[in-house]
Design brief:
2 domains; alpha+beta; about 35% helix
């Protein structure tokens, strides 16, 4: 009898050319505790997931591994298939998407990274590892600070006194500056033309965006959350932005003392795990397998009808047959 061998996944293309780094997020970050780089690392995964995992494993740290970038480099699968494969790899314990808030030198910004592990790990291991990552800033999150060059002093002429104006005559009306929430909404159209909002739209959505800023997020974080994973066609930009502002509202972050790890003066960081499917952020404990509760419930396999069917009561077959024979007898 001929022995049947299971079909293997097509070999993933190796990283033979330089890959562009992700400037604002989704850059690959390899975690410690890696197994050997052999073909058996992803042997238990399905064919598509083995193909994507083998390709991602060859990427250097800092390379872009978002859905669109992977779909361009992997011609066998489209964006939907790549997104499903990344979600399956997160559930299998190979990756976690994390948003890091970096504070230092009077600045605060969010950086999105994808932590990758060739060896699959459980949720407890990922929670402990990401808690340790919060103490040290990655290379992508820190920007080199350049000291300003010395500028020679220049003599300036004294400013002549301004002429007095009569009250109520020619006095400009005081105009309040727009809030950070309004400016972030107004700048969405420059980042993503499909989300261009009018002045009235920005004013209507300003309270929702202000609630995000009240929870400690920055303008970059808000913009990334609103522009990530957009559909191909957007019929109502204000409706989509309102829905995302409501559904992706981040949790309140409690003020905690600065971590003792790391040298004094190091930038403080807070880490939020990002749902691999919808991008909703949250603590690691609230997103087991890298998925939020709604996405985990939506992708949960439906229960079989056999399990839902009530168990039939066992009958005494000989007694039932005897009673039927008695009824069929002629009087």
């Amino acid at each position: 009898m001929a022995t049947q061998h299971p079909s293997s996944a097509p070999p993933a293309p190796a990283a033979s050319r330089p890959y562009s780094k992700a400037p604002t997020g989704y850059g690959k970050q390899t975690v410690p505790a890696q197994g050997p780089a052999d073909t058996a690392a992803f042997a238990l995964l399905p064919e598509r997931e083995r193909y994507v995992a083998g390709y991602v494993d060859h990427l250097p740290d800092g390379a872009a591994m978002d859905i669109k970038s992977l779909a361009k480099d992997l011609p066998l699968y489209g964006q939907m298939a790549i997104g499903t494969a990344l979600r399956a790899l997160a559930v299998a314990g190979h990756l976690r998407r994390v948003r890091c808030r970096v504070e230092g030198a009077g600045q605060c910004r969010w950086v999105t990274l994808t932590y990758w592990s060739r060896t699959a790990h459980d949720n407890e291991w990922w929670s402990a590892t990401l808690a340790g990552e919060a103490a040290t800033a990655p290379e992508q999150a820190s920007a080199p600070s350049a000291e300003p060059a010395a500028v020679p002093r220049q003599r300036t002429a004294p400013t002549p006194p301004a002429p007095r104006e009569e009250p109520g005559v020619g006095a400009p009306s005081a105009v309040s500056a727009p809030s950070p929430a309004y400016l972030a909404l107004a700048g969405l159209g420059r980042r993503e033309p499909r989300l261009a909002l009018s002045a009235a739209d920005c004013s209507a959505l300003e309270p929702l965006a202000a609630a995000w800023f009240a929870r400690g997020v920055s303008a970059d974080y808000l913009t990334s959350a609103l522009t990530a994973g957009l559909p191909e066609r957007i019929g109502s930009p204000i409706g989509l932005v309102r829905r995302r502002l409501t559904d992706k509202m981040p949790p309140h972050l409690l003020t905690a003392p600065a971590p003792t790890q790391g040298p004094p003066g190091a930038p403080a960081r807070s880490v939020l795990v990002e749902c691999t499917d919808c991008g909703r952020p949250g603590p690691a404990e609230a997103l087991p397998d890298g998925l939020c509760r709604p996405c985990a419930t939506a992708h949960q396999p439906a229960e079989s009808s056999e399990a839902e069917a009530p168990v039939e009561i066992e009958r005494d077959v000989p007694a039932l047959v005897a009673s039927l024979r008695n009824l069929m007898r002629t009087p």
